[in-house]
Design brief:
The complex is a heterodimer. Chain A is built from 10 helices and 2 strands, in the order αααββααααααα. Chain A is flat and about 80 Å long. Chain B has one domain: Fumarate Reductase Cytochrome B subunit (Up-down Bundle). Classes of the chains: A mainly alpha, B mainly alpha. At the A-B interface, α1 and α10 of A face α3, α7 and α8 of B. The complex binds protoporphyrin IX containing FE.
Chain lengths: 226, 276
């Protein structure tokens, strides 16, 4: 016969011993990874965390096929101005707003309205300039821009997120709307997670809400047992 | 008048876990929603309740940790409830919470019953929708917990996974939270309070016991099983005291009101927020 409450102590022992053993393991020190990896891997890690390869500055490698480059050439049917129209890719300019008429009198969000909808703006109350800096705002691919992926993590992210590395800077601040075709092209992982969760949400509710309502309705018509 | 005979259904630990889940879940919903709806006036006033959006996220994080501890503790408890000497019966027998083929049959029979085509299925100890309620926490909470901890320590998380997974983590956390909230505040509350056989409140999870007539009506197969095992006598429980009853009615209705308040305002304000 088993005891009254039905508590079997075996798993408790196994799990607590395993946890105990886990806590006894020495913590992995930071230098450790470097000493035991191959030199190829070591260089890669070094590049990623410092942005330097020997004496050259390096762009961090493409992190994943799931996130593609986000600065496509975006040409509107009506250019800002005649001079502005000739510039094909502003992300390489030292002054990314060069040639835009009446630039001094305009506000960022007049053109970049979608860029004001992200978490950093709506939750942390950041202004554009806290990350993008004062005038002239360099394009993110301009060699000396603080936003250049070579050094973005150190010059921009780490201002608030102490210890931010290149991987951290791979977070997409101005992400495309998760369910849009833009996301499917540029950030498929986000796109498919979104539609997966939507299907899960719609599926669960589409099954259980009618199920519950029908239960309620049917129970009203139940004959009392006499 | 004869006293109704009551049969034990949930032990004290089960009930404590349930109350724990109610309290932590409602706190997480209120603080999580206060951040989710921050761009709206309603969200701002919700934050004000917690003393601002900084405090509200602080509460969200600590209660999140508490929830994770409770979840681990509950899982350990669950493992102790398995009878390792009779593993098969314990896992797939009539007292088990694990879904079986029988549950799929019950679902089909119940759909027929909805439209008056067949009799009510012979539900055992745990109906299939009760099993779903139980296991839903097992995918919902780990998902919220993993993505939540990633968002709590984004810099550390980005050392192990690429930074863009944080975009996904935010999306999954919000979507799963909305799924859990809508399921609990619509379906679970309706089943527990509003459907005719439960109205005004299904007391089983608070009182820990059910009247034997209700059991015979709702869970005929379990009733037969208890009868066959001679447990109708040994598993008898005392009725809850009046005071306790008053307390859990107030508690249950407070939770209901709270949930409906958050849900309705969430729906009204849903046009101003995004999932990512
Ligand atoms: C299980 C443990 C949990 C942990 C560790 C956790 C942690 C977090 C963290 C760190 C955030 C980021 C908030 C921010 O910086 O603005 C967050 C957001 C959020 N959480 Fe949780 N959470 C947990 C459970 C839950 C639950 C159970 C719910 C509701 C059912 C919930 C609802 C939300 C919502 C709606 C947001 C979005 C807030 C926003 O839009 O900024 N969370 N959570």
């Amino acid at each position: 016969m088993r005891n009254m409450i039905g508590i079997n102590r075996m798993p408790i022992w196994i799990i607590s011993l395993a946890l105990f053993a886990f806590f006894l393991l020495p913590a992995r020190s930071y230098g450790q990874g470097e000493e035991v990896t191959s030199y190829i891997n070591r260089y890669k890690q070094n590049e990623v965390s410092t942005g330097y390869y020997e004496e050259y500055e390096m762009r961090p490698g493409n992190e994943s096929p799931l996130v593609k480059t986000f600065h496509r050439v975006d040409r509107k049917p009506f250019a800002y101005s005649s001079t502005a129209a000739s510039i094909r890719n502003r992300s390489l300019l030292a002054d990314s707003h060069r040639g835009i008429k009446f630039y001094d009198n305009r506000r960022c969000e007049e053109c970049h309205i979608n860029e004001t909808q992200d978490i950093h703006t709506t939750r942390a109350n950041l202004t554009c300039r806290q990350c993008h800096g004062p005038e002239p705002i360099a394009g993110i691919d301009h060699y000396y821009s603080p936003m250049n992926p070579i050094r973005r993590h150190a010059y921009v992210c780490a201002k608030c997120h102490q210890g931010a590395g290149a991987s951290f800077a791979g977070y997409v601040i101005h992400e495309p709307p998760a369910g849009s075709s833009a996301a499917r092209a540029d950030f498929p992982a986000l796109y498919y997670s979104y539609w997966f969760m939507m299907a899960l949400l719609a599926g669960t509710l589409a099954f259980f809400i009618p199920h519950t309502i029908l239960t309620g309705v049917r129970e009203m018509f139940k004959r009392k047992k006499g | 008048m004869m006293q109704t005979v009551r049969i034990k259904r949930f032990n004290i630990l089960d009930r404590i876990f349930h109350v724990f889940l109610i309290l932590t879940f409602l706190t997480q919903t209120a603080t999580g929603f206060s951040r989710l709806f921050l761009p709206t006036a309603w969200g701002k006033s919700l934050n004000a309740v917690f003393g601002g959006y900084d405090t509200s996220i602080l509460i969200h994080k600590w209660v999140g940790i508490l929830m994770i501890c409770g979840f681990i503790f509950h899982t350990l408890y669950l493992l102790t409830r398995i009878d390792y000497n009779h593993l098969w019966v314990s896992l797939f027998g009539p007292d088990s919470l694990i879904p079986t083929v029988q549950d799929a049959k019950h679902l089909w029979q119940r759909i027929l019953w909805f439209f008056g085509i067949g009799p009510q299925p012979g539900i055992g100890r745990w109906a299939y929708w009760e099993k779903f309620d139980y296991w839903a926490v097992y995918w919902g909470l780990p998902l919220l917990a993993i993505t939540g901890v990633m968002l709590m320590y984004p810099v550390i998380a980005s050392r192990y996974v690429p930074g863009w997974t944080l975009n996904i983590a935010v999306l999954l956390h919000r979507a799963e939270a909305i799924l859990a909230v809508s399921y609990i505040f619509i379906v679970h509350f309706f089943v527990g309070h509003l459907r005719p056989s439960s109205f005004p409140m299904n007391e089983a999870m608070f009182a820990g016991s059910v009247p034997v007539e209700e059991l015979e009506e709702e869970k005929p197969v379990w009733f037969a099983q208890l009868k066959a095992e001679g447990k109708l006598e040994t598993e008898k429980a005392n009725p809850p005291s009046l005071l306790y009853k008053i307390v859990y009615f107030i508690f249950g209705y407070a939770a209901l009101g709270f949930g409906v308040y958050l849900l309705v305002n969430g729906v009204i304000n849903s046009q101003y927020i995004t999932l990512h």
